[in-house]
TrEMBL record:
GN (gene name): sbcD
GO molecular function, one term: endonuclease activity
Limits of the Calcineurin-like phosphoesterase domain: 2-234
Self-association state and partner proteins as the record states: Heterodimer of SbcC and SbcD.
Function in brief: SbcCD cleaves DNA hairpin structures. These structures can inhibit DNA replication and are intermediates in certain DNA recombination reactions. The complex acts as a 3'->5' double strand exonuclease that can open hairpins. It also has a 5' single-strand endonuclease activity.
Taxonomic superkingdom: Bacteria
The protein's name: Nuclease SbcCD subunit D
Keywords: DNA recombination, DNA replication, Endonuclease, Exonuclease, Hydrolase, Nuclease
Length: 441
């Protein structure tokens, strides 16, 4: 029985906007969070004296992380070297350098010849002799268009066709690796990819280019005892019958608010030929909390806002407060008090949204079926905008000039632009709020 720790999507060095500078260390607290979480994983690998650690890719947000971030990552993984635990580092899409000959941030571990470390930057099969016997790991790093295809082949093809072509290319390559396998030895496929049926998380927005989707049927083969995936940040097993398990452990920390409700963790598994017992192990990670409240109908918006904040546990959490209100209510919000009420949070952002622009009831005079000349239409609109009363005359005048001046030479763009934004700019509170969205202590 071979004991393996499978983790993925570390993304160390991302999400700094959710943190603040720790005055003692000078580091962003979110870097410290990611380091703490990775430390928990490595602690576990050592405490359980696992036979192998496999990392599913995406170590950093990009291929050129700053030295102090690389160092934070390396100082955790080197503990595995000291503990003589073999480790496979797979290259994800965020680890690949897109310029020139490419290369990946993780290749430095091979260049330095770190004992027991394997870098998976190509499709290859690695036989690893562990304390509990041999294990085979096929590495399948993130595939780009240029990995298996040439430019002339893909020219003029739609993305779906390119995807199909890539799949048809990958199939024999993977088959070649499968045929090299020793059928007696337990086998892991370690891949950084988007499998179809995977539920998406933040990686959808983080991806640099549009990626490829690999059919699940390509992964669920009896020659694999466990399919270890990386890329999707939400933990999931894509093959409920577990023959073999096809598992995304997910990211180890919340990379952004789209992961607010997800459990974060890693996977521990015991492997033998034909069987894998696996378990998701949750990590203690920082809480993300969204507080969303519509104040537009509240008689006392300030009280309603404070009540909404009071209902949520925000201590040491990364908080985002989103509230909707009407422009006439802006003066009723005391920003100092709102900031004070969020002071227990680790960090917070405040986003007021003016509801008047979002959901004003349609004017029947301007509805379908009625026709009006543009000036009358504008008049009708302005008659219904109490807040634009001061500039109504100017707007009408500017509109008349625009309509009259068919030849562009006569167009004087200055006045209409100036009046269009006036009403919001005049309210200082909203601007203050946006400027001080993030508290940096
Ligand atoms: Mn990825």
């Amino acid at each position: 029985m071979i004991k393996i720790l499978h983790l993925s999507d570390i993304h160390m060095g991302s999400g700094f906007s959710h943190g603040r500078i720790n005055p003692i260390t000078g580091l962003n607290t979110r870097l410290e969070d990611f380091v703490n979480t990775l430390t928990q994983c490595i602690d576990k690998a050592i405490a359980e004296s696992v036979d192998l650690v496999i990392f599913g890719g995406d170590a950093f947000p990009d291929a050129t992380p700053p030295p102090y971030v690389q160092q934070a990552f390396a100082s955790q993984f080197r503990r595995l070297v000291d503990a003589e635990i073999p480790t496979v580092l797979l290259v994800g899409n965020h680890d690949q350098h897109s310029q020139g000959q490419g290369g990946a941030s993780l290749c430095i571990y091979r260049t330095l010849g770190v004992p027991g470390f394997i870098v998976g930057d190509s499709i290859d099969t690695h036989r690893i002799e562990t304390r509990s016997g041999p294990v085979q790991v096929i590495t399948l790093p993130w595939l780009t268009r240029s990995t298996l295809l040439t430019r002339p082949e893909t020219e003029g093809l739609a993305i779906a066709e390119v995807n199909e072509l890539l799949t048809s290319r990958l199939d024999p390559v993977l088959e070649g690796e499968v045929r090299r396998l020793d059928p007696e030895v337990p086998t892991v496929l370690l891949a950084h990819l988007m499998a179809d049926h995977a539920n998406l998380g933040a990686e959808r927005f983080l991806a640099v280019g549009k990626g490829f989707t690999i059919p699940l049927s390509m992964l669920t083969r009896p020659c694999f005892d466990y399919v270890a995936l990386g890329h999707v940040h939400r933990h999931q097993n894509l093959n409920k019958s577990n023959d073999p398990p096809v598992v995304y452990p997910g990211s180890i920390e919340r990379v952004d608010f789209s992961e607010e409700k997800e459990d974060k963790g890693y996977v521990m598994l015991e492997l033998e030929r034909g069987r894998a017992n696996w378990e998701f192990c949750p990590l203690a990670v920082r809480t993300f909390r969204t507080i969303e409240v519509d104040l537009s109908q509240a008689a006392d918006p300030q009280a309603a806002l404070l009540k909404a904040i009071g209902k949520k546990e925000i201590k040491e959490a990364v908080v985002r407060l989103i509230y909707k209100l009407r422009s006439e209510q802006l003066d009723l919000i005391d920003n100092g008090v709102v900031h004070q009420s969020l002071s227990d949070a680790h960090s917070y952002t405040i986003r007021p949204e003016l509801v008047s622009q979002l959901a004003r009831p349609r004017l029947p005079e301007l509805g379908v079926g009625s026709s009006m000349n543009p000036i009358d239409a504008l008049k009708t609109y302005l008659d219904n905008r109490e807040d634009l009363k001061d500039i109504t005359a100017q707007m009408l005048e500017a509109a008349q000039r625009l309509l009259a001046g068919n030849d562009n030479n006569k167009l004087d763009l200055e006045p209409p632009q100036a009046v269009g934004v006036g009403s919001i700019k005049d309210k200082p509170q909203l601007g203050d709020n946006i400027d001080s969205q993030l508290r940096l202590l």
